[in-house]
Amino acid sequence: MTQPPAKPSAGRAATKKELPEHLKAYRHVWVFIEYEHGAIHPVSLELLGEGRKLADKLGVELGGVLLGGHRDSLDRAATVCFEHGADVVYVGASPVLDAYRNEPYTKVMTELVERYKPEILLLGATTLGRDLAGAVATTLLTGLTADCTALAIDEERSLAATRPTFGGSLLCTIHTLNYRPQMATVRPRVMPMPERAPGRTGRLVEHPVTLVEDDIVTKVLSFIPDRQAASAQLAFADIVVAGGLGLRSPENFALVKELAAVLGGEYGGTRPVVQKGWIGADRQIGQTGKTIRPKLYIAAGISGAIQHRVGVDGADLIVAINSDPNAPIFEFAHLGVVADAVSVLPALTEAFRRRLKVNRLAG
Question: How many domains does the chain have?
């Protein structure tokens, strides 16, 4: 989270503060569309859904920004953006934008903002989005609120960006009052995916890119794809089973993996479990790990501190198993089982295994 230094003030005004004259030209809500290797990152579509709500509240347009190397593929991606809520898509096509590099993307994004003046700019809190957001906010000398869990428009038509703070023990709402655009990043799966409206169209604005390769210091020598990219991703799984320290040992944690396998889902865990080495960091769920929105989430031996709640609040159904009846997780779980998870998990696994076997025989 970065904010520009506060200007000296004689005190907080008791009446509504008038927006500085030079900021009144800033209008509309923008979403940077993360587009790589022919695919739009799902977080960009999720942000179009959230941006649509903000734009409607302000009575302005929702814009998407698409940068890449090939105009034809960007046009096809723009169609997807229109169908997910965008009114206008700004397209910047150039060979220097074919693969993401911070320098050219920052320069083009800065040009776009300075020319068209959006009042709100949203980016996904992915590796790419975090890198770009910090650079763009620095170049534009504006504020950036990172890893937001909620976005809203307040009574003064300002962006109210809420994010965890103090190690996730509190939530704070941040306003960028005297600078534009108001920037925020949001992690994947924090916001719901908007409904697609096939056939919906909008306005396409082509932005000329004058950069040439000689202007860019960094070079892309080759691309090595992630061999795990095609496998199921924890953040996008429909069923997730997770375990915490209540399981007491890595051997008992194997019960979580077994139940997830029977259900055809993914498994994960809490930060303490990762720190003990029971699972890898890529399986961590919570504020400093993955945010998930599964149809079913089973939490075994997890206390449910706010750091974890931030990562699972979007689940359709949360089933908690914990031996402590006062565990915080029971405050937000839809179904709770007060019992030792080490005893319950094998019984659940066997019950689901029998039910799936019956269904296969019946089918």
Answer: 2
